[in-house]
Write a sequence for this structure.
């Protein structure tokens, strides 16, 4: 009988909305909630942070003129070559694959960054 009452009170739509809603407050441990400005939500804050990190990685930390890549440059080059040689060129051909590799790299790194930052509890939506 109790399982039946629980099943009736569970609303799938409310459960889903609770986990994907766009929060206007950023809850940090041991601090009062930070109210974000009207144009900025928690998801938009995550987009801005990841965009900044990617701009820094590819414009500042990535040293294209090094003869032998080391450190961050070596790691980024590994992923860029993998996306070019294993995804773009085999599916689009040599000319278009090389042409569209920057687009695929941008999508890959942006989605990867957002997935990683979504796992950090500081960016979890507040529980109501």
């Amino acid at each position: 009988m109790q399982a039946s009452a629980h099943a009736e009170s569970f609303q799938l739509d409310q459960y889903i909305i609770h986990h994907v809603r766009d929060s206007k407050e950023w809850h940090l441990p041991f601090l009062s909630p930070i109210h974000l400005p009207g144009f900025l939500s928690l998801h938009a804050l995550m987009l801005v942070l990841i965009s900044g990190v990617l701009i820094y990685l590819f414009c500042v930390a990535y040293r294209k003129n090094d003869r032998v890549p080391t450190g961050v440059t070596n790691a980024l080059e590994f992923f860029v070559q993998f996306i070019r040689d294993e995804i773009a060129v085999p599916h689009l051909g040599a000319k278009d694959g090389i042409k569209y590799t920057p687009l695929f790299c941008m999508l890959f790194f942006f989605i990867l960054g957002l997935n990683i930052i979504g796992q950090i509890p500081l960016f979890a939506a507040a529980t109501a």
